[in-house]
Known about the structure:
By secondary structure, chain A is an alpha+beta fold. Chain A has 12 helices and 8 strands.
Amino acid sequence: xxxxxxxxxxxxxxxxxxxxxxxxxxxxxxxxxxxxxxxxxxxxxxxxxxxxxxxxxxxxxxxxxxxxxxxxxxxxxxxxxxxxxxxxxxxxxxxxxxxxxxxxxxxxxxxxxxxxxxxxxxxxxxxxxxxxxxxxxxxxxxxxxxxxxxxxxxxxxxxxxxxxxxxxxxxxxxxxxxxxxxxxxxxxxxxxxxxxxxxxxxxxxxxxxxxxxxxxxxxxxxxxxxxxxxxxxxxxxxxxxxxxxxxxxxxxxxxxxxxxxxxxxxxxxxxxxxxxxxxxxxxxxxxxxxxxxxxxxxxxxxxxxxxxxxxxxxxxxxxxxxxxxxxxxxxxxxxxxxxxxxxxxxxxxxxxxxxxxxxxxxxxxxxxxxxxxxxxxxxxxxxxxxxxxxxx
Amino acid sequence: xxxxxxxxxxxxxxxxxxxxxxxxxxxxxxxxxxxxxxxxxxxxxxxxxxxxxxxxxxxxxxxxxxxxxxxxxxxxxxxxxxxxxxxxxxxxxxxxxxxxxxxxxxxxxxxxxxxxxxxxxxxxxxxxxxxxxxxxxxxxxxxxxxxxxxxxxxxxxxxxxxxxxxxxxxxxxxxxxxxxxxxxxxxxxxxxxxxxxxxxxxxxxxxxxxxxxxxxxxxxxxxxxxxxxxxxxxxxxxxxxxxxxxxxxxxxxxxxxxxxxxxxxxxxxxxxxxxxxxxxxxxxxxxxxxxxxxxxxxxxxxxxxxxxxxxxxxxxxxxxxxxxxxxxxxxxxxxxxxxxxxxxxxxxxx
Lengths: 392, 350
């Protein structure tokens, strides 16, 4: 056992810390609280911040240099995510492009697709959204019905996608579409579509936070060139499953850095308000312990990456852990802060340290998106515990 | 960077598992638990000592192997899996404290050789929060009563925590056995009026407490791993409504949560052990977090195992209750959850 980062990774971390200190105008929470901030303006700000990170060589960390990546590894990527969280850096805008489509193109795309799409994805010039869920196909994703019919050199798309994160701001969408109505898994293909294609309509959906980060996307005889198929026809399901495992990969370390940062602020707030009784301290301590265990999970995954292993179905454990913890943490935070915890960030009385009200609401999303907790438990039961599957 | 055990550590794991399977299978341990007064088999204890286990983390100067918390965790995880009864963790911790102090190396050598037992006497009252006269060490003597002293009836010496510091006393002791529901453990009250050697300077109780937290969490990890395995075996064969109960999602999701707790405990325990050995600044928080989490996780996992076995799970005959009881003992001792939560807050500066 050896849980110490290698010297080259420590050096990478120190250089990144210095870069963040020199290049971040102010913490993300301060951007959010700026009275002049609008939803559109913040999206543009994130696009600019992403470009800065890209130019400094911090995006596409584990992707080969020839496609615009840094040519580093999963360890650097996890360290990067952790440091971004620790510094409260603005989140990059193209998370779905970089998190999901990037690995899909690197592992399954054509050379031409990599050259065409990866650099603009990394720079933030083209923002991607993910077209997986449909009104009738959420957890049972393979039941999706959006169709892609081959007609000459084009696919013709028809159907509807929903809960499409960044839909209202994206330039492109990667779509899972049905190319064969009889083959449940083998009839799904992975197709790239520009959102200003005739026949494509995007409508924002308002979320419980009041924001419209996601939306719905309609396809009515939208024509997409055949060259925008990733992999072969019918490979879409396999590709989607590979990239989802990547998405769940090294979340724990960054999550625990983010929660640790906010937990420090919560503890400071309790001190400030003279909240030091046993019930308060026990709540804080339990959150601290759970977050520390999450950190241990993250370090373990990091060590696996350092040995060159790739994430498997065990990554579902980490997804459940951080997303379920997020709910407990944000709920406890509101209880500890009292009614003031519910103040909107635009309220002059809201605490400036963390947007506690939004975090409380937002924590309800993590156990639904990217495979709900229930789906993660199914994955663990089937693929890790190998339990028999003939009843539900 | 590497989470996996080194070759030597992996060898220690497999040889310990083999040793326990041949020397301390549960059929045999159950007889010791249920029928022996001492709560362990002295012949087996000597074999354990001969194999070098008792001196695992002690320096070579007193006959030990000089290994670290990671190796101790490996051994205790296996002892947990086997639900091995006896004073192993208690003796390791007390001997480590005495060895640090450097005032009784001859005693430590006897302990390492399996000739004598030593344990730590900590509790001044049987119930949390009850006031009792503190044991004092004045004029070279320790006087007063200690409660819940592990394996006191077999101990040749005790390290006594007093308001005046730690004192080492040698037997014989006047003990009153305390029968708890955990047959793998023995406790007794000890009335003390003994000449004591102060364990000054080098004896670092906080360090040994962290080692105890790691060790107890590792044993909890072994207990819950085995309970999860037993449950997975059972739900594949047990039929209800014409199908194995393992096919029911109501159980599958709960077993997924059991795995989450087992694997998260594994991450926490071995990371804590590693930070302990590395002398890392985060060791205090990591050790406290591991123990606090492991205690809750083990009670949950071992309890779910009983629930999923149904009526047979509630029988004396099935082994599960031994795991469940052992888990509760480990949760309450070696720094209770409350104590670990306080330690975590202190370590984080909250």
